Amino acid sequence: MKLVIDQSGAHNKLVLHQCGAHINLVLHQSGALIKLILLQSGSQIKLVLFQSGAHIKLVLYQSGAHIKLDLHQSGAHIKLVVHQSGAHINLQYGAHIKLVLHQSGTHFKLVLYQSGAHVNLVLYQSRAHIKLVLYHFGAHIKLVLHQSGAHIKLVLNQSEAHIKLVLYKSLVHIKVVLHQSGAHIKLVSHQSGALIKLVLQKSGTQIDLILHQSGEHIKLVFHQSGAHIKQVFQQSGEHIKLVLNQ
């Protein structure tokens, strides 16, 4: 697992790489800009969300069900493109849309309602077990993605400066929780296969980092408050190099 966290001022960068499950999660939060990328190769899911002011770009690829969804929402403009190979659907609309689509052959249900700045999008696709819900009202975004085949649950709430991200991946037992409100960041990661527990709290100049990894017998505790550093590191193997600059 590779985890990179950069928090300076209003800019937050979170990168999570997990090779066993082929998950690449990137979250950038700078002002009103959010970029979220989720790659999950086992189920061929690519999710990209851009939120800057009133502009939303949402792209979802799911190869098993052959679904491609593009949503652009800027002011009163919406561009929606849906490609679903079984039903051969291609939709593109302008503003003030109310769309309900039911297609029982491929178990496809799409509901889109756009009035002013409000978007309510629900996508059900039973064969691939995909449930996608997107609510956009002003600066508030709520995104829920359920994909039972790969056991993925993703929840994103973005309201002004507050971000709550929850990712569950049951096959490799990964749980990532990110709370970002103002200058405060709390990150919790659980990965039962390697038994990793990571907690990061950054409020002002205070950092608390706890990492437990039982497979290699690593325990890391890092506390940084002003000029104070407390560090505990235990590793049963050999060939360890640790560099810390304060």
Q: Briefly, what is this?
A:
With 246 residues, the chain is an all-beta fold.
Describe the 3D structure.
The chain has 246 residues and is mainly β. The protein is built from no helices and 21 strands. It has strands spanning 2-8, 11-18, 23-30, 33-40, 45-52, 55-62, 67-74, 77-84, 97-103, 108-115, 118-125, 130-137, 140-147, 152-159, 162-169, 174-181, 184-191, 196-203, 206-213, 218-225, 228-234. The strands form two sheets. A 13-stranded antiparallel sheet has the order 9-10-11-12-13-14-15-16-17-18-19-20-21, with no helix packed on it. Strands 1-2-3-4-5-6-7-8 form an eight-stranded antiparallel sheet, with no helix packed on it. It is flat, with a radius of gyration of 20 Å. The model is unreliable at 1-246 (pLDDT under 50).
Relevant terms:
disordered C terminus, mainly beta, disordered N terminus, 13-stranded antiparallel β-sheet, 21 strands
